[in-house]
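User: As part of a screening pipeline, I want to sanity-check one entry by hand. Below is the sequence and the SMILES for fe (ii) ion. Please return the complex as structure tokens so I can compare it with the automated output.
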Amino acid sequence: MARPHIEFIHAQALEWQSGVLPAPFDTVECKILSLDKETGACSTLLRYPKGWSPSGVNYLSADHEFLVLEGSIAIGSQRHNFDHYGYLPAGTQHNNWCSEGGAVTLTFFSASPEASTGSQIDPPTAARHISLHDMKWSSVDVDPDLDFLRIAHKVLRNDEDKGEKTMILNCGAQSHPEDWKEAALSHPCVEEMFLLSGDILGERGTMHAGSYFWRPPNIWHGPFGSRNGNLCLIRFMEGHHVNKWGDEKLPFTLTPEHKPDLPDSLVHHGKEPFTAPTPY
Ligand SMILES: [Fe+2]
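Assistant: Here is the complex for your manual check:
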């Protein structure tokens, strides 16, 4: 079963939980942002406690993709500090995995993250480690019809064969469609987003830092804009990212009504708009 449409929740509304993921994550606090109940694939926030150091983990049975939001973790000889991105395909060595001072990570697993203490026969080689600050911004391949958002991006991973792409996106402040009208768009793939800072104004309401959506393929969204600009992590999955534009131009407003699309299990988290901290 695929994950339900979640658009959108604020992570701040979710409780930190313990023991929801298999060992060694049972000792890590977790917020489940979305979950495929059949495969165990999930998108999470993980809070590693200070001094966390599981013993005997050799590798995970799931792809382990993450962005460190706070603190640092180490896996093998690689230290991942805040604003570092990691992608460790299933089977990648996870020995000497620890967090000395604690950490919070935005973490994605492609299946239930079962740990193995055995040795794998054919270790994968496609692991990635990127310090975001060492990567240059680019605007290559941005749809010209989205010029009004002043998008710059950093492509962290692009697997054409699997139809999986992960990127950091930065949009400009005080951005809105020309004449305050634009068509909606959709993609033939899943789009998933976690907002790291700023805001996104859209047809389902106002997203602030900490907001998250999981949007299944072919769901219309937009038009979008922003008051303060934004920085987000976006993943496209289960197909290739193509923008399909609607025929009708729809009005854009700086004060959208709050009407998220949420499964029954999350409706109570999305009843009220989230109030972001103000600078005054
Ligand atoms: Fe989109």
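Points to compare against the pipeline: The radius of gyration is 19 Å. The CA atoms of residues 62 and 257 lie 39 Å apart.
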